[in-house]
# Entry
Amino acid sequence: FTFRYQRFFDVVDFERNGLSPAGSFAGGFFGFCNGKKAMKQTVSVFFVLAFLLAATQVWVFQYALPSPDSIAYFEVADQIRSVGYVRALSEHWSPLYSLCLFAVKNLFLVPLEKELLAATVSFAVLIFLTAAAAWFFLFFLSKLLWRDESQAAEARRPWMTYGLGLALFFLFVVFRVNLRLPDVLVFGFALLSLGCWCESIRRGLGLGWAFAAGILAGLGFLARANVFHWSLVTGALASWLAVRVSLRRRLMAYGVFLLGLVLFFAFQLYAMSAQKGRLTFGESGKTVFAAVYGAEWKKGGKAWPVSLLGGDVRVFTEEREVNFPGFYDVGREFKDAVIPFRFRAAVRGILGAFQSALFGYYSPREALIWPMWWAFLPLFLFGIPPASLAFFSVRNHLAPGSPVLRRRMAVFLVLAGLAGLAMHFLTYAIGYYLPPYLFMLFAGLGVLVLEKRRKETARHAHRSLRIVGAGFALTAVLYTLSLFRSQHLLAVWSQFVGTAELSRALEGIPKEEPHLRRIAVAGQGQWLGLYGVRLSGSQVYADLPNLDVFKDSERFQKVVQALRERKVAAVLASAQICFGLEKQGWKQVEGTPWCLLVL
# Structure
């Protein structure tokens, strides 16, 4: 389309045709204006759109119920204040996210009923800062790739338009999953680390920039543990990639990078080991691998959660040093487990991850980005292997800004993105895990597109990239505006009102202990979403995983007696589970789909 109708864009001049300032504003992002003015307009439009998309989150999700993971992060943040970071540290949840929530809640003295609004506002601020990190990465990479001013005038404008449009789109993919702060943190710190490596390469492997890349990679490790492995690979590639640098300098740069990375890794390793009383890297990795390969326990069963009455009752805080109200530590469940390697399970897991990436079966909303996979899948299969061979065969006397270096850096970005994707394909690929690595991959492809020898072909490529970048940005804006539909807002508000009613009902139940109200819930795995339990200051102490226990009155009475012995105040279940059991004392909470049995 752009090749056929490029003459239309050649003759359109927004400013001369009296379309300023609105036309100049839009034309700047498309890159049709000339000179530095177009660059400034492109960046200005990008940050304006990033601000608007971030502000949308505050408006739409201020009353949205947090996901089960988000509830767990809130609980860990509360425990940091009461018992300290080391004792409150979880082996599964992101410590950096919990520290961010802890800082926001304590710095602004946020009450419990306002924590969702405070978390949403801080999330919007972080989205804007992550957009700035994307600009930082693209800007420093452009300085490395196009040193000559004549080259910069032709290539930087389409490059920035394309890259910033991609950044807006992939940021939207992350933040449409409300309160998913760890994924935004990974996005920002991964790009900042790569940006520092680009500037270090431009300065002949500057040690200060390499150290900064290590620090940022370490912060990314605190956001998600597998960033550590990805950083080791990309750091080694970046050190080898530098031009006109001695072997000693390469080793020094990589060593300084590792020093910055280990500063955070060593602290986290000490914190986890101090909590366990032995050297440990944590058990969180077992959780994702157990979903693919299964888990085996040496003693014949799980040590936690504690099973009572033949499995009719599961207790989640028995023998816990730190009491997490309503908190389910997933990593603790696999503490004593052994994850066996099964080849067939590995094949099924990898194929399932690719199916998730191609079709988005994890969530229909995430299918938005996956059609791009089909467009570029032939390139991944048939174009990357030969390009990788060329990447490793290029000599190291290339000058910054040379065409060969640009092709080499393009393949480096593609490999960095593929390394991140490979980490997730070994277990499972969830849509909001992949955007930072997809962004790197498509950025590398954009650099390859800009490498056109013939002037006319290059002109077409530049204009195509501008339109593609603007298309990505427009898609993100349109899908964000769709969140303002009245039905969506009404559904969000109704869920929040039901949660508030449930919280008030739980607050009316007397506490067995001065500062603790223990609640048992019915149904395995569904109770994590009960944000009303947290708002009431109660604790999810146990659950009843076997729903058939409600059909056997004698068996249910044994369950009730076991819960009373452990000072459980009430049992919470959905209205469907307790339908027709009013004689046992069940009462539905008005305005909610929940029932309570006060013990």
Notes: The chain is about 65% helix and 5% strand.
